């Protein structure tokens, strides 16, 4: 079947347990695996899907951010050898600031990190604006 230059995309919404990065990572990999079986080229997950959005001040503790980093590493391993791009939401610490980011993953590599530019007033307590990311 010809694809006429189109790609199959998917938006996936995992069941998320707040601050349970191990569980959330497993759910993300499970749904990404289902998408891969259906020949999806790009699967996108929600904002902060690795940690849950409502972690509040837990984002200010290094343990949650480190767990999210480990979750990204697990998804990198999962993606190795798969012709699919996965976009997952994660907190990213960079230059002593915390950003709410979309992490773009393909074939075991991080291809890009896109910080949220305009955090809400509640998010602004925890996350820096992506306007000054670089």
Topology:
Elements (H helix, E strand, L loop, with lengths): L8 E3 L9 H17 L4 E3 L17 H18 L5 E10 L2 E10 L2 E7 L19
Parallel strand pairs: 1-2, 2-3
Antiparallel strand pairs: 3-4, 4-5
Low-pLDDT regions: none
Shape: globular
Order of helices and strands: EHEHEEE
Q: What does the largest sheet look like?
A: 5 strands, mixed
Number of strands: 5
Radius of gyration: 15 Å
Question: Tags for this entry?
Answer:
five-stranded mixed beta sheet; 25% strand; 134 residues; alpha/beta; globular
How would you portray this structure in words?
The chain is α/β, with parallel strands linked by helices and 134 residues long. The chain contains 2 helices and 5 strands; from the N terminus they run E-H-E-H-E-E-E. It has helices at residues 21-37, 62-79; strands at residues 9-11, 42-44, 85-94, 97-106, 109-115. The chain has a 5-stranded mixed beta sheet with strand order 1-2-3-4-5. Helix 1 (21-37) runs parallel beside helix 2. It starts with 8 loop residues before the first strand and ends in a 19-residue tail after the last strand.
Question: Summed up, what is this model?
Answer:
26% of the residues lie in helices and 25% in strands. The protein has 134 residues and is an alpha/beta fold.
């Amino acid at each position: 079947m010809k694809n006429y230059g189109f790609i199959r995309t998917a938006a996936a919404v995992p069941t998320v347990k707040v601050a349970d990065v191990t569980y959330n990572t497993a759910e993300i990999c499970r749904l990404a695996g289902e998408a891969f079986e259906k020949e999806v080229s790009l699967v996108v997950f929600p904002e902060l899907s690795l940690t849950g959005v409502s972690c509040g001040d837990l984002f200010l503790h290094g343990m949650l951010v480190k767990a999210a980093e480990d979750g990204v590493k697990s998804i990198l391993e999962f993606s190795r050898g798969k012709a699919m791009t996965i976009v997952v939401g994660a907190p990213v610490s960079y230059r002593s600031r915390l950003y709410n980011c979309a992490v773009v993953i393909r074939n075991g590599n991080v291809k890009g990190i896109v910080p949220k530019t305009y955090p809400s007033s509640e998010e602004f307590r925890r996350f820096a604006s992506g306007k000054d990311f670089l």
